[in-house]
Amino acid sequence: MDPSSALDIAPVERLLISYRGSEDVLKYCESELLPFFDQNIASWKRQGRQFPFPLHVKFMLRFVPYSPDLVIDLSKNGHHRWDQHAFLHLFFMKPSSVDEYRLGSRHEVSEWFASVSQVNGAQWLILFDSTKAREKKNRGTLLERIKSDFAKHTSRVVEIHEGSSQCMNGLQLLMQSYLLSSLDAFVSYEESYLSVLKEDYKSSDFNFIAYCEYQMEMSRLYSTLGVLEHVLAKYDELDALLSLIVDHFSKESTKPSWLCGESHIGDGCPLLTALAQCNAPPQRRSVSLIEIRSLIVAHQIIVSLRIFDERVRHLSGGSPPNAIQMKCDFAAIILRYSNHCITSICEECSAMGLKLDHGEVQCWTVAFCVEAMQFVSLLTQAAHVEHASYFACSLSTRKCAAITELGKYVESGESKALLAWFEKGVALCARSAAESNAVVEIRLILSDQQQFTHYMQKYHESSIALLKHFGWKRQSKLLGWQLANFLLSSDRVEGALPYLLKFVSGLIREGVSLLLVERTLVLVVQHLEASPNLYLKELVDFYVILSIHSAEKNDRLAYCKRLFALLERNNSTKIRHSVRSSTPYRALYISAKSIPSRITATPGDVLRIAITVTNNLPLSLENYLVRCVFRLASSSCSRQKPTGGRSPLFECSYNHADGVNRFGCIWKGEYGVLPRDSVSETDVPICSGDEPQKSIVFEEREKRGELRGGNNVLTLEAKASDVGVYMLENVDIEVAGVLYVTFAWMDIPEIERDNSRRPICFVYRKAATVSLRAVKGGYALSGVAQRLDFELSSGSEPIGDASTSLRVTSSNKASNIEFWDESTSKWLKWCHPQVGSLAVNEHRSMTVYICKALRNLTTYDEADSDVATTSDQICVEWLGKEWTFVVEFRSLISVRATTSLLEDKALLEMQMSRVRDDGWVILPQEAVLLESSIDEPQIPAKLLNTKLTPIVPKSSYRIVWVLPPRRQHSEETVEHEIRFAYRVRANGHFDPDIPEGVYDREYVYEEDIALTVQRACYELCAQLLSSQPGAVLCRVDSACDLIVSLRSLTNKVETVVIGVDADSRFWAINEKHKLLYVKESGLGQTSFSVVPKMVGFLPYPSITVYCCHHLRTSSDKSLGHIEQSMFGAHLASFIRTNGKQVHVLGAFNPSADQKSTSSDKSRRLKEAKSRLTKLFD
């Protein structure tokens, strides 16, 4: 059965609408009305009912010819069938004129109206199609005549015509309104009628069958309207009412008249698929509880499937996670309904004292459970419905119990009558339902003994798997025991043994007293002895248990001898047993009290430990071997979080701020993170000496002879070989070369109680090492000799060669680092200090002197003038190994180079800064600047400060050169070499901790720099004069004259642009650029008006000279403005007044006499011009 066939079991019916009149209008209205009502939903607000929201109903309509029997007369008492009455009556007419209406339709509609209007509350409409009347221009008169005939009901006369959507829309809304009104009146009446009937349910004459039929009719009406939740609610009400009736009459001496008192359940087996097609209970005077409850639950299941189908179709976006969860939810609903039904039947039959046919009850139970699970499988597997596990397990358990009881009828041949009774129920099903898996399986179970055995085993195995999945272990073991007994009774010992073994092994693992299972265990052993090779491991386990815990001593000895004989016969087979602390009935027992928790050794040492082995068998063990394995701890294990064994560990913490104690599980146990039943309780990883290079295996060198009963203290030895950390992994005891009993470290009692007592063996080899002591201050100085101290250690082996030495060098072959070689007393690229012989674990300190020369320190930015930091790698080689150390260097000095123009000369200034007090005084020896030229001879630059003085810490020192004359005015980049030679001495009380013979040497700082020096084209001079008459100094906010005089150094006649700029906080300049014509004499002069904005000593505005694209001549007087296109390249110039300041006074109070202002201004300009001319001359 698939979901679609399940939903088609009970097809949805339609509401009736009667019609009379024109067939043409009927066809037109059907084509327009039926699709509208099928696709649209109406909002039904119940009259007089307190619903939180309206019901959204869908009218599925069917047109039928009018008959007076279709009119619902609610004034008559009793039940009314909604499927035999019409909720709306329509009359169709299509006359083209008044005469045609009078002769053809008037009599018929009058007769129809008289019949409909007799019943109060009947809803009707007259539909007039005016298509033909419009064609003959008779529409108005015809409509007026029809409304005059029905003057009291003009609102029920509706005009339509083909092609008018507006008329049809109005008709659709009007019909919807009348249908809702008629539906509300009918439902209100029926619910009131059923409510009155229900009040008499405690009476023995109460006809529950009739009430159930009426309620199911109402449910079908709600199903037609599409409100499936109300349908399900109606069936839930029926179920609750039935429970009330049975509960009431179970306490009374009488029984309800509708309840069947016979032993038969019914005429046939009540199958869910057949009952889901029934619209009413069986039409008999009495029915059985199984029949009526099966009928209710069948409809509950079908309605639930329809609700699921509707919600899935309306699921927004079809989201798979939502659909899967919805399947599980509805599968849980079906399981709940099914389990409630079968549980209620069993309880109510017992409460009512009903004696039903046992065979029929078991047959129905199996069929019911199989069908219920089949309906669940339409949605999902029962194992996936976690929140309905109880219902699924209960149904599976009942199914297995019922088929077990049904087996008695199959064995005795009494199943034919049950099969005939079952076939009667199948005959009521549809063809698709009759061929479902559930029906086929029950038919085969009742008809064939071999098929019964097959399905008996199949049902039990599936139920056991389901019960285990949900954690019903004890119930699953019981089902396994029942199946095993059934197979044994059927002479199928091979099939029964696995279930017997699981049952007995489960009881043993749970620690059940052996007195309760001894007889069963002996029976199992008898069956296993028939196939010892196939069940060797199980036989060994059971022999051990019986050897230790049999009630009689002779039995214990006998089973122990059987155990030894079994092991001798199977000496080619290997059996591994992993013993846990929780394993009952252990033959051997281990104690690690005598093993120290920490063992240390070096390679080649012999280790000894003592271990206690307890023998619980009644006889001594002769052929045995004890092996204790310490496994090398891997790096991955060391990074893992430490565990607490198989038992969980908890941690408690107290929060002082919140005042709360918190408990947390920090370790769930060995198998706490694995899925349920994924690990067998006897399957634990076994760690033996398979990899001797990674393990230390302790064995008994001198064997005792035998392991007697009780405690035996054994001494085990091993030889340490590889270096590493070894941890106790397991203890293996080999018996007769067949049985290997393994105790993991977590199963040894002393370690299980305290994991910190797990023995650890440290095997170590200490290699020779070299380390660098921390440099004083955290860094070394470059540009002066420094001291490095290395710490040498011989390790775990002595170094006897007296000629051993270190080789210290720089990792970077191109580095400028030198080392002091004591053997040659020279500074070299490497050094070889002698080490000599060392004893075991001896430490020795070696001192190495190092010097990193100063190179490439020049910067051109003031911000980068601080001491730079560099790192170099020092490589040390010793005994064939290499160590690399990173040493941080900071320069003894920082250098900043700048160039400047002095008249027609170019200067290079090298400023050396020492910002730290490092204790050294620099003694300059030589400072040379050379031009890097290959083709021409090198010309040293002239040193201006020829007397070089010592440079002390926290000071600044300058060296100035005049560039060679032939390169002063070249604009190309020229490479230069700087060579600064110096010596050092300790400053004051500073102790360098370095011999003077080492650091007293000549140091050289070398630098290659590229210089570009432009030639000065003009010499500029500026002067500021106050604009006020008779004033000498400038005053704030008073205009001043900035007179700029120019002299050409190239004697070139041209026009240039003079630009003036200044900080707006100091000066306000209205006109910042002016043209200046340079005369043949090379002189020129112009003036700017500037306004000082601040009192004090203000710097002169900056002056810039640009080329001019406008070729101005001496005849040009002026230009109105200077465009940006006139600006050319910037011209190098020497400004004599660069850096000069002017004193600005406060604001000037003007006097009354200002008549000679202009004349004074002209006079002062002439004087200034005369002074500047004399200056240039």
Description:
This protein is of the alpha+beta class. It folds into six domains: 4-199, P-loop containing nucleotide triphosphate hydrolases (Rossmann fold, 3-Layer(aba) Sandwich), CATH 3.40.50; 258-473, no CATH class; 588-670 and 683-763, Immunoglobulin-like; 766-891, Immunoglobulins (Immunoglobulin-like), CATH 2.60.40; 894-1013, Immunoglobulin-like (Sandwich); 1018-1176, Sandwich (Immunoglobulin-like). The chain contains 26 helices and 49 strands. The strands form twelve sheets. Strands 8, 10, 12, 15, 17, 18 and 19 form a seven-stranded mixed sheet that branches. Strand 17 (724-735) and strand 18 (739-744) form a beta hairpin. The longest helix is centred in the first third of the chain and has 34 residues, at 165-198. The termini are far apart. Mean pLDDT is 83; it is low at 637-642, 671-693, 1115-1120 and 1152-1156.
